[in-house]
Amino acid sequence: MLVRLYVNAKDEDELKVNITPFIEKFATIVKKITWLETKKYWKFEGVFEVLYEFKLQDLVTYSAFHAVLQSVSDHWLELGTGKDKSLLASKNAEECQFILGNMELVTLTQLSDLL
Questions:
Q1: What is the mean pLDDT of residues 37-54?
Q2: What are residue 113's phi and psi, to 5 degrees?
Q3: What is the span of the domain harbouring residue 16?
Q4: N or C: which end of the chain has fewer CB within 10 A?
Q5: Domain assignment present for 74
Q6: d(CA 92, CA 109)
Q7: Which pLDDT value is given to residue 115?
Q8: Residue 10 sits in a domain of what CATH number?
Q9: Rounded mean pLDDT of 52-58?
Q10: Among residues 60, 61, 59, 39, which one has the least CA distance to residue 48?
């Protein structure tokens, strides 16, 4: 699963602190996390874009996955269909009442058979 985070932070040290709660939420269902890229987000000052690959544990249930999602945000949009399906949580979505920490936006892609 590819995880793209847009996180408020003044620098990379603060970014690491701000990302830690997100990583901890997924720790129960992920067996390997690979950092792929970090860069300043061109569109907004003080926002970083971070890309990870999360290798899920072999027997993750939809229920366990859903519980982790709900601990990150109370509102997720499903986009696309089939293998192209992705999930998006945004603090700017009208229906969003909660998103973890300093997250602006979270996208999850390459979800395999979880949805």
A1: 96
A2: -100, 15
A3: 2-109
A4: C
A5: yes
A6: 20
A7: 59
A8: 3.30.70
A9: 94
A10: 39
